[in-house]
Amino acid sequence: MMGDQCEGIGRTSRFSGFFFYLLVLILESTSASGEKTAAPGIHQISLNDSIAEPFRRLPVVGKCCPINEILTKDRDGRTVCRNLNSTLEPIIFSPYFSDFNKTGVLAPGDEKTHFVAIVGDPCRFKKYMLEPEVTSDDEHYLLLNGSIFGPHHIPSMLSPGRDYCMEVIPDLGLRTLVCFQEEEQKKTGDFRLTFYACGLLISVPFLVLTIIAYCITPRLMDVHGKSLCHYCGCLAVAFIALAITQLSSNHLSDEMCISTAFVIQFSFVACFFWLNVMCIETYMLARRYMTSGCSAAHEPQRLFFYYSLWAWSPPAILIIVSMIMDLSPTVPMTYIKPNFGSQSCWFQSDVEAMPYFYVPVGLLLVSNIALFTMTAVAITRHQRDLDLRRLRQDRETNRDERRTLGRLKRLFLVCLSLFFLMGMNWAMEIISWWAGGDPLAWSAFDLVNALQGILVFGIFVLRKPIRHLVWYEIQKIRGVEGAEPEVASMDRSLLTVLNIDAIPSTQRML
User: How many C-beta neighbours within 10 Å does residue 65 have?
Assistant: First the structure.
């Protein structure tokens, strides 16, 4: 009995000791967490004030907003300071201060219980946020004297109250915001951007002339011609909006800048979809011509309706998603947003542009390459079949087949010109974004893109017999009578992509 009692007392004693040890751990963790969440002592001064003598030995940091306020956006998308009383839980402003040790190596940062905050927005122009978790170029350290040291940043040292400020941003935490210098603001006025914008504005009249030429010529307004007009219209709108941002982005209001960015995004994406429609129709036209000998579609109106759904619906959905992500205050900041207007009248960086622009454009370019490849393979196979059949047919039939083969070869050459003049230049744009490097190295491709309107006008208007048909319609509008160019019925739907030698010699002298 006594042994049982001793054993029970021992178990009770061990249980009591374990409970006491658990209680100590809980108290220690509570105490540690309390020390961790304790707000530091911040001594606030304004931008133009000097640090008083009692606080000169304390660490210094630049703070964008007054004490107990954080940086957020209002309903209009403008950056404002908001009082912490409106938040559900307190957010503590406590940056990590770093220092150099005796060997010159940067020591790890640490929190400080007391420091001086130079409060106010020091930026004369706009500011941008450093994101070291996205790119190593934004790696930076806050030093005890208040300066920001960025090993890969230019300049590498940023002064408090002049070059930067730090602030808590909802869903992002404590962030460093760097001021644009006056030289950075004038970058949009340099010669290269001005030259590029002038190229865009030169292309616009040629795109408009292409649309007018096709609209006044009913024989050109087949499915391919209508798609070309929509492509030129989207490209003209995109070029005008892009030229405006290149030449006068510093003078645009935030609302106008954001609106222009949405117009550029929608116009360019729609332009790529209409280019995809043209590639699909070119492939289908070649297939119809080689399989049945007839290039015209059975129901062109219905076919163009389906093409229109494909070309307009995805860009509309994409722009609606972009507007919701960028303008809705309920979307968390941790999501990838376009952030139009934060640094320019476009995406804030390539990271934001990737899901909203580069990915859909890249997929369309891959699709166009596949369509051009399929067209080339189909023409090659048809040429081989013609060569085999030519051996077993008479001379007159061979002459017709050689004429057909010549038209198909010209179709293939036009497909290649479309690919290199339109698709490849946009592909180089994607490659330049992916590869990075000096933007001047890609200036030639940018210039070709800017002058794309002239190339489109030369391919689809100045080539015969299209220019003869357009000139005939112009003469009719002017009231001048003339003979209508003769084009074989089987060639009419190929006018937009073939250089047909079916016009009499008298008409070629026009």
Answer: 23
Q: Note whether 370 and 355 are within 8 A (CB).
A: no
**CA angle 23–26–27, rounded 5-degree value:** 85
Query: Tokens 């292409």 — which residue?
Result: 210
Q: For residue range 217-261, list pLDDT tens digits in order.
A: 888 888 888 998 999 999 999 999 988 888 876 677 878 888 999
**HSE-up (13 A, CA, CB side) for residue 319:** 18
Residue tagged 């089987």 (tokens): 490
This prediction's pTM: 0.62
Q: Is the dihedral of CA 222, 225, 229, 235 positive or negative?
A: positive
**pLDDT at residue 213 in the model:** 93
The CA distance from 242 to 345, in Å, is 9
Which residues does residue 474 pair with via DSSP β-bridges, in sequence order?
A: none
Give the strand pairing for 141-143 and 96-98. Answer: parallel
* Residue 42 phi, psi dihedral angles, 5° rounding: -110, 125
Q: Are strands 60-63 and 114-119 parallel, antiparallel or unpaired?
A: parallel
CB 267 within 8 A of CB 234: yes
Structure tokens at 388: 């085999």
User: Which amino acid, residue 223?
Assistant: V
Closest CA to 510 of 488, 483, 479, 489: 483
Please answer whether residues 278 and 224 qualify as being in contact, where contact means their C-beta atoms are separated by less than 8 angstroms.
Answer: yes
Is residue 175 within 8 Å of residue 169, measured between CB atoms? yes
Residue carrying the six token digits 């479309």: 418
Burial of 160-184, coded b for 16+ CB within 10 Å and e otherwise, reads bbebbbbbbbbeeebbbbbbeeeee
Q: Examine the pLDDT at 483 and tell me if it is beyond 60.
A: yes
Q: Which domains does the chain have, with CATH numbers?
A: 41-179 (2.170.180.11), 186-485 (1.20.1070.10)
> Dihedrals φ, ψ of 343, to 5°?
-120, -30
Distances (CA, A) of 340 to 24, 258, 261, 347, 466: 53, 5, 7, 5, 42
Question: What is the four-CA torsion angle of 286, 290, 296, 298, rounded to 10 degrees?
Answer: -110
Exposure string over 283-322, b if 16+ CB within 10 A, otherwise e: bbbbebbbeeeebbbeeeeeebeebeeebbebbeebbeeb
